Amino acid sequence: MKRIYLHALPVRIWHWINAGSFFALIATGIQIRYRDLVHLTSFKTAVEVHNFFGFLLIANFILWALYYLLSGKIKVYLPDPNLKNFIRGSIRQARYYAYGIFVGEENPHHASPDSKFNPMQQVAYFNIMLLFMSLQILTGLMLWDIKMFSGVIAVAGGLKMVDAGHLFLSIFFTAFLFVHVYLATLGHSTWTHIKAMFTGYEDEPEHAH
Known about the structure:
It is built from 7 helices and 2 strands; from the N terminus they run E-H-H-H-H-H-H-H-E. It is mainly alpha-helical.
């Protein structure tokens, strides 16, 4: 095994702020929407906490974008421009997730600082960070101040459409958290990937590098 420095400190800080904000937003969002069924705290407090972590998530997203764009590391999220290589890599990775992992086969993708994600992860994270997260932030801002964003809300199809979009994306991100945590346990040991998000270092097979 070879120990590689995979996650820089800014990435690790962003990751855990993002994770904490997600859990806080999900918990308070459930109470806000189902105020008659869930009583974690007062409705007013739930709204205030939801707004605080919403803006924290926005600030964190901006810092993430600036870091990856200015450092040039945004390429780790971009799929291989060679379509054949991308399709071939995606098929290999899908086979591994569906079959290989259960019979002890080696992961076809070996992470490195310049190639952190396999083809399937690249597509997923690219859409999650650049499309779904942007839409969640935009709909959240519109619901935060309906009057200020009334023009944008009208263009988006009205308040019900904005609210439905925000709810759908919230459900998607909640489901994504469960999948993300599960996939994080599929390293050489249960805690390999999780530990790496604290230390920055991960062990990879020597021959892979």
